[in-house]
Design goal:
The strands form five sheets. A five-stranded mixed beta sheet has the order 3-6-7-11-10. A five-stranded parallel beta sheet has the order 9-12-15-4-16. The protein has a two-stranded antiparallel ribbon with strand order 1-2. It has three domains: 82 residues, Winged helix-like DNA-binding domain superfamily/Winged helix DNA-binding domain (Arc Repressor Mutant, subunit A, Orthogonal Bundle); 223 residues, 3-Layer(aba) Sandwich (Rossmann fold); 76 residues, no CATH class. The protein is of the alpha/beta class. The protein contains 16 helices and 16 strands. Strand 1 and strand 2 form a beta hairpin. The radius of gyration is 27 Å and the shape is elongated. Helices cover 39% and strands 16% of the residues.
């Protein structure tokens, strides 16, 4: 196995060679033969071409696997259409297929080896990509941030270390965290559909999290790998300790990768840190080695552990006091702490102007000035980056209800404010 601490000087390739033999796949032959049998049993592909497409392997590979099934009398050819053989499973093959499905119901793309996965993740590391001011400004162009905040983010991305965003609620911490991958928007990474470890299948590619890249010539690359944008995975209060390890489905009996593995070569955002189902101390104990050494340990059934790379930016975002969430050892491992505070009047106006432009609502600076006075004086609230978006949303919802075009005028804003803010105790809003 490739040592996880080894330095891999190569960059991730633009294309991946297509394996032409079973040996080239780097996976146990017996596992591939079993997968072929299960795939035929479940999908009943009309030809070997369709079987190859389902398993994401070349025709030469699937032909080699099918010949073995024929030799073992598990499958037989029933006819030919052109040069394509038509086939079916024998009674012995169907019985064997059903037996295999009772052990593991995985059917789909052939897995890659752990060695291949480790090497690819190391090659695609997000830690060694140089980031410059122009890259950061381009990525965060949609957000109205102070230069000092942008500079801190740029330095943090060059460090390759984790980031701690803290500050009051509604100041844009989550928006900042999820925008970080845009810095690498011209980049893409290879993510496997699944990998094989100790004879077990672990699914990695998640269509709900990983975004495929258009324009990449996949016909020239190993189809077991998917070209995707660097992933962004966001978890919040639902995060539990079980989500940080391999999860096996008791019915299908194969594993799915934990959230940090799905975020490899990208960004994992721990939103509302400190409000999870697991205590911050538990997370520290679980990730003390990964954060330090870039290595994670995952546990298979039976207790056997496998090592995988921990090659990602972890962004912790919280509106709680960092000193109350973790001890000094944990905070030391998160070397960049960025406070995201409330906004000035000037920034508030600029955010409001952009939100109005996106919503196709005419911007009125005088109305926004009146809103600022109301927020600060009546509700005794600081100006937050979320207020413009939330106010315009309220205005648009009311306009839709009343079947009219939305307008940024004072009556509309009064309605929005009354629906959004909680009045001070003793205020009589009906008068």
């Amino acid at each position: 196995m490739t040592p996880l601490t080894a330095v891999v000087p190569d960059v991730a390739p633009d294309t991946l060679p297509i394996p032409q033999t079973v040996a080239d796949l780097g996976v146990r032959r017996a596992l591939l033969e079993d997968l072929t049998l299960k795939t035929i049993y479940v999908t009943a592909p009309p030809s070997l071409v369709d079987l190859a497409a389902t398993m994401c392997v070349s025709y030469a590979v699937v032909d080699e696997l099918f010949r073995r099934l024929r030799n073992d009398r598990l499958a037989e050819v029933t006819g030919m259409i052109g040069n394509a053989p038509q086939f079916t499973l024998t009674s012995e093959g169907r019985a064997r297929g059903l037996e295999l499905l009772s052990l593991n119901q995985y059917v789909g793309p052939a897995p890659v080896s752990v060695d291949s996965y480790v090497k690819m993740v190391r090659q695609q590391t997000v830690r060694d990509i140089p980031v410059h001011p122009g890259d950061v400004r381009r990525a965060f162009n949609d957000l109205v941030l102070e230069d000092k905040t942008l500079n801190k983010l740029g330095a943090a991305l060059n460090s390759g270390a984790s980031i701690f965003l803290h500050g009051p609620t509604g100041t844009g911490k989550t928006a900042i965290a999820t925008t970080i991958p845009r810095v690498f928007s011209d980049d893409y990474v290879w993510i496997p559909y699944a990998l094989q470890a100790d004879g077990q299948i672990i699914t990695v590619y998640d269509p709900n999290l990983h975004k495929k890249v258009d324009g990449v010539d996949l016909e020239e690359s190993d189809p077991r790998w998917v070209a995707c944008r660097r992933p962004t995975v966001v978890v919040g209060g639902e995060l539990a300790i079980e989500m940080l390890d391999l999860q096996i489905n008791p019915i299908s009996k194969f594993y799915s990768a934990p959230v940090q593995m799905k975020a490899n070569n990208g960004v994992l955002v721990i939103d509302d840190f400190g409000r999870q189902r697991l205590r911050p101390e538990e997370l520290l104990n679980r990730w003390i080695v990964p954060l330090d050494r870039g290595i994670d340990f995952l546990t298979l059934a039976g207790g056997r552990k496998i090592e995988i790379p921990f090659e990602l930016f972890v962004v912790f975002a919280t509106n709680l006091d960092p000193s109350t969430l973790a001890d000094a050892a944990f905070l030391r491992r998160i070397q960049t702490k960025i406070k995201v505070g409330t906004v000035s009047r000037l920034r508030f106006h600029e955010i409001f102007r952009r939100v109005c432009a996106n919503a196709k609502v005419d911007y009125d600076a005088a109305v926004v000035d009146a809103l600022i006075e109301t927020i600060q004086n009546k509700y005794r609230e600081p100006l937050r980056a979320c207020h413009p978006r939330d106010m315009v949303n309220q205005i648009c919802w009311s306009a839709r209800y009343e079947n009219r075009d939305p307008r940024l005028d004072w009556p509309s804003l009064v309605t929005a404010v009354d629906a959004y803010f909680v009045p001070e105790p003793g205020d009589d809003d009906d008068e």
